[in-house]
Amino acid sequence: MNDQDDPRREDAMATVAEGATGVGRDEVWRCVACGADARMAEGGDALRCPSCGASYPVEDGVIVVRGEVDANNEVARAFYDGPLWPKFRFWEWYTFLCNGGERRSRDKVLRHLPAGENLRLLDVAVGDGVYLPWLPPSWSVVGVDVSRVQLRNCRGRVGGRDVRLVLGEAEDLPVRDRSFDACLSIGAFNYFNDPEKALREMARAVKPGGKIVISDEVPNLTDRLWFHKIGLPGLDRFFERLVTKNLGPEFTAMVERYKDMDVQAIGRGVLADVHYELIWMKMGYVMVGTAPA
Ligand SMILES: C[S@@+](CC[C@H](N)C(=O)[O-])C[C@H]1O[C@@H](n2cnc3c(N)ncnc32)[C@H](O)[C@@H]1O
Ligand SMILES: [Zn+2]
Asked: How many CB atoms lie under 10 A from the CB of residue 76?
């Protein structure tokens, strides 16, 4: 069935048109300065906090909660705002190709999301929204990311969906407690400034018992690539340089620093019922847990 003919899509568009119930309307926002409930201003040009007076402007359709970041988040921002990510994306495409194609590869992660219509999803590190078309059209989505360029590209994918985008950090989400049915975070968790804090934020934002689905490449991916098994140091270095060329020196150094990160331990410290699984020929992982009561 063509997406345009999908009746669920019509429902989603009706929700957006009515503007009464979808995420991105008044009921989900939280002020990152003081933690109080924030509200979208009448004209939709800013998010305002009646408690401390903070105002977060809407620029090009994106709510700007935090414009400047530091440490790892700044390395990520510079990379995803710059020219290297579109080139590096070749490796994502290549990985999917080796794993039975895009639909099959993405489904390894997305199948852990709950089923149902009209759910509210928080996408942390939404990037350019490449996953949006794979989600049910009736879902409302709030996407948070540190990269203006990625969020601008994401806007191009929104179509008639109920999606609101935020320039902000995973570690300090501008959303209220228990306001989402589920949370998704793909391709960023390993290098957040503070993955545990980010996970606590996701757990706070999701209703108790709601699913939190995290996926990224395994932290020690470069050690596991096939060329390391050849045992020829010259060839190793050649292929490693080929893979990391489009990552740039700062991102590559960051990847090296977190090779021993224990993602499961972080998950178990924050979430209930943690399930961890290697995917994409053990090049990636998906970790699924529920928000504690
Ligand atoms: C590989 S992309 C993944 C985008 C999308 N989830 C996908 O799977 O295609 C990683 C994204 O994480 C964002 N990011 C990195 N650190 C972040 C942080 N601390 N908070 C929010 N977004 C972050 C980057 O800007 C980038 O858009
Ligand atoms: Zn406030």
From this structure: 24
Residues with Cβ within 8 Å of residue 234, at least 6 apart in sequence: none
Helix spans in the chain (H): 7-18, 71-81, 84-98, 102-110, 148-158, 195-205, 221-224, 233-244, 248-257, 263-270
Ion ligand 2 neighbours (CB, 5 A) are 31, 33-34, 36, 49, 51-52, 54
The answer to whether residues 125 and 144 touch, using CB atoms and an 8 Å cutoff, is yes
The DSSP code for 29 is: B
pLDDT score, position 18:
33
Rounded Cα distance between 106 and 128, Å, is 15
Q: Which ligand is nearest to the CA of 91?
A: 1
pLDDT value at position 223?
75
DSSP 3-state of 253: helix
For residue 55, the CA-to-ligand 2 centroid distance in Å is 8
Question: Euclidean distance between the first and final Cα of the chain, in Å?
Answer: 39
DSSP 280-293: TTTTEEEEEEE---
- Comparing CA positions, the residue from 56, 19, 16, 20 lying closest to residue 36 is 56
DSSP secondary-structure letter at 30? B
CA of 50 to the centre of ligand 1 (A): 30
pLDDT at 8 > cutoff 60: no
Take residue 79 and report the two structure tokens written for it: 């990379």
Q: pTM for this structure?
A: 0.90
Report pLDDT for 6: 40
| Cα–Cα distance measured from residue 15 to residue 191, given in angstroms and rounded to the nearest whole number | 36
**Dihedral angle at the C-alpha atoms of 109, 113, 117, 122, nearest 10 degrees?**
-90
**Residue 277: CB atoms within 10 Å:** 13
